[in-house]
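Long-time lurker. I teach an intro course on protein structure, and each term I like to show students one example going from raw sequence to a predicted 3D structure in token notation. This year I'd like something fresh instead of my usual example. Would anyone be willing to generate the tokens for the chain below so I can use it in lecture? Attribution to the forum is fine with me.
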Amino acid sequence: MKLFSDFKKVSDQNEGHITILNRTGIETAVNKFKPGAPEDKINDLNTFFSTTLPPDYINFLQFCNGASLFEHPEYGGEITLFSVQDIIHYNEPADRKIVVANIQDDRIIIDLDLYQSGNQNYLLLCESMNPVEYSGSFNTDFETWLERFIVSQGSKFWYWKTDRYIF
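-- Reply from a regular --
Happy to contribute to a lecture. Here you go:
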């Protein structure tokens, strides 16, 4: 969580405003962070799903109980990392794939069955309005995904394409 912590510190220095470089040039973006979730809220979440969530995700919630990232200063944005309350609101207790973020119509999902089986690549992507059953794997955990998202400055890096040449 060091990268996320540093990212929050930089954002907090200027009331959430940061300068980013993207395809359209240099822009200002706004980040809003909620205070960390207290232990009783984390316990509520574990009780709600009748299991423990991955430690890297719990660490995120303890540090920051939800956030909106890379918003346009005037028009807002659609990048929301859910709080404990949001997770309980948008998911059902029996869900094994829980939505933890919404990134411009894509949903970021923790697969509890993958995590419980010991698989550290438990994070999934559910595109647009597809049912959760059609989710694909990020081949990563939450912390690694979040770091990549910050480094890509809020871009949906998972859609970047590359051509590889085999010699």
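Some talking points for your students: Strands lie at 17-22, 25-33, 67-71, 79-81, 97-103, 106-111, 123-126, 136-137. Residues 16 and 114 are 35 Å apart (CA to CA).
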